Amino acid sequence: MFNIVVIASGNGSNFQAVIDAIDSGLINARIIKLISDNERANALNRARSSGIETVIINGKDSNFYPILNDILLSINPDLIVLDGFMKIMPDYIVNEFLYKMINIHPSLLPAFGGRGFYGIKVHRSVIRSGARFSGCTIHFVTSDVDNGPIIEQRVVEVNDDDDEYTLSEKIHEEEHRALVSSIALLISGRYRISGKRVLRLY
User: Signal peptide location in the record (predicted)?
Assistant: First the structure.
């Protein structure tokens, strides 16, 4: 069985999309643990409702990353999914799980990515830029923030009456589909990494 660990800081709607995809048979995997740095994260409630083990690590603890690393090493999952995780992984964790950790970014990378671009700030920047299209990106996590090989992207039109909140809602819907599709690809093993791209093998 393909084992997944999810690390989330907030609502966990993408986490829920993966739970639903597993329950419906769209992907053949199991989520073995939900880790959060926020004891108030709704993702924890979603996990408990689905019988998924949860772990809370105080995000302000100076030993946060060593604790997280020890947990991940003890599990050695096939895949780690970052769902709205608001911290930047240190290189030693990234390198330990290189190409086994993926992130969901709410823009079409490399645009509107990197340090300081997260959550509603991304959508606000897109609106202010005048861009006509935005979207989401599923990518492997590397030490180069938001610049790992791209697995999948989905495009969303930015309408004239959109603000950062309506744009966020539209992109969230595509994030769910893109994440499930990306996990299905990784489970299949029918891909190879070529530079900044993840190529599907047919």
Answer: none
Overall number of domains in the chain: 2
- CATH (domain of 78): 3.40.50.170
Which pLDDT tens digit goes with each residue over 76-91? 999 999 998 989 999 9
Distance CA 84, CA 74 (A): 23
108 and 56 together in one domain? no
Token pair 């935005």 is found at 134
Mean pLDDT for 5-31 is 96
Domain co-membership, 79 together with 16:
yes
Same domain, 79 and 150: no
Q: What's the one-letter identity of residue 41?
A: A
- 105 catalytic, yes or no? yes
| Active-site pick, 105, 123, 139, 176 | 105
pLDDT tens for each residue of 119-145: 899 999 999 999 999 999 999 999 999
Identify the domain containing residue 45 by its residue range.
Answer: 1-97
